[in-house]
Structure formats: structure tokens, C-alpha cells
Amino acid sequence: MFKVLTSIFIFTMLSHAKSNTETIKIGKEIFAKCAVCHGADGRKKALGKSEIIGGRPAEEIERKVKEYKAGTGSLYGKIMKGNVISLSDYDIRNVAEYISSLDKQSEAAIRMEREKIATRIERTEKIEKAKKASRIKRVKKTIGKMINSDKIEYKHLFINPDDAVCGYIRAMNRDTGLFSNYKKFVSYPIDGEEIVSAEDRYGKSPMFDDMWYKACGKYLN
Length: 221
Ligand code: HEC
Prior knowledge:
The chain has seven helices and four strands, in the order αααααββββαα. The chain has helices at residues 2-17, 20-38, 58-70, 75-84, 89-147, 199-202, 206-220; strands at residues 152-159, 165-171, 183-190, 193-198. The radius of gyration is 36 Å and the shape is rod-shaped.
């Protein structure tokens, strides 16, 4: 009994002494011929028959392969026997470790892909935000020119899903120094020009109110 335990202990030490990268390297070489049936990532059902082996625990794969090598089982088991008969225990250990690592490898690849996408989204969002800010600045300038007041103030500026700039505006009267009430406005880009429609210009009309509500007001709740 003591002898058995010792040899298990030594075996464990030996197998851990080998670096993981070397195990994976050897395993990968052996796996090249397995990949024909099991898929390069170990995720194909070999001959439509086997379970997916990529990412399964190494011990389980090792045990299965040894069973095939010992040569019991079905016709398909015999096919497997032909493929593993020449493998040593050391080979089997390495290839099992490699197959088991395939899941982690694809997980790492998936994680990297996700990170890439997240970065791309973040960048796009930043660009969109900058574009919106510059658009709003342009609209403010346009309205500023239109109104010809020393001081203009804006409230709740935003760009609606149809790319219209929405908001409220009030301007200071030069003579009195007093501000008007906030008035609704909406601005559409047409041929690179900002076409501003404002409550101010058309008077308080139900038509303008309706248009403004549909374009802007409903988003402000
Ligand atoms: C010619 C195609 C073929 C090749 C090459 C092949 N296998 Fe298989 N493998 C099979 C088939 C078919 C089965 C399912 C056998 C059965 O029904 O038991 C299988 C089953 C397995 C299983 C058990 C999966 C389960 O269903 O639980 C493992 C592990 C495995 N193979 C490992 C390997 C390794 C390692 C190699 C390379 C050294 C290899 N195979 C090469 C066809 C192949």
C-alpha cells in the first residue's frame, strides 16, 4: 500500500514538474491527427458519433482514451482504438491536457473579442457624443445670428432620433435688458444648413406646438 501511494506521489510530482506550456505543446502535436475527426477546437462530434471533447476535464479524456486503447466497445470504439493504440501514457496525458485546455483557449478568444467590441462601442459613443456637441454648438450659432440679441439662453437641448436639435430658448431684449419667456424651437439639418423653426417666429400656433411635440416634446416627458 505504501509503495502504491509513493509511486502515485512521484507520478504527480513528475507530471507537475513538466511545465504547462510544454504539455500543451506536445499535446497539440498529437492532437493534429485527432482534429481531423474531432475538429481543430475539439468541438466537432467525431463521425457524428462522439461527444464534444474540447474543454472536458483532462482526467476524463485520459480515462476514455485509455479505455479505447485497451480495446473494448463498439465499432466506433474500434475506430478510436486504431487512433490511440500507438500513444504512450505520457502522450495520452499530454493530449488530454491539451484537449481540456481548448475550452479555456476559446474562452480567452471570446473574452478578447468581447473586449474589442466594447472598445469599439465606447469609441463610437465618444465620437457620436462629440458630433452631437458640435452640432448643438452650430445650431446655437445659427440661432444667435437669427435673433440678434446680446444674450441668449438655452434649456434642455438634445438631438432627437431623426437628427433634429430640440430645446427651449430665450433672449434678452437689448433695450429693456429683460429676458423673454423660454420658447420652443426645433432645428433640422437640410443641405448642410440648419433650418430652425421657433415658437418666436411663427407666434404661438397649435400647428407649431403639435410639430414641436412630435419632434421634441414627447422625448422630454
Ligand atoms: C477517424 C476519426 C477519429 C479520429 C482521427 C479520432 N477520433 Fe476520437 N472518436 C471518434 C469517434 C467515432 C468516437 C466515438 C466512439 C464511441 O462511440 O465510443 C471518438 C471518441 C473519442 C473520445 C470520447 C468522447 C466521448 O464520446 O465521450 C475521446 C476522448 C477521443 N475520441 C479522443 C481522441 C483523440 C485524443 C484522438 C487523437 C489521438 C482521436 N480521438 C482521434 C473518432 C475519431
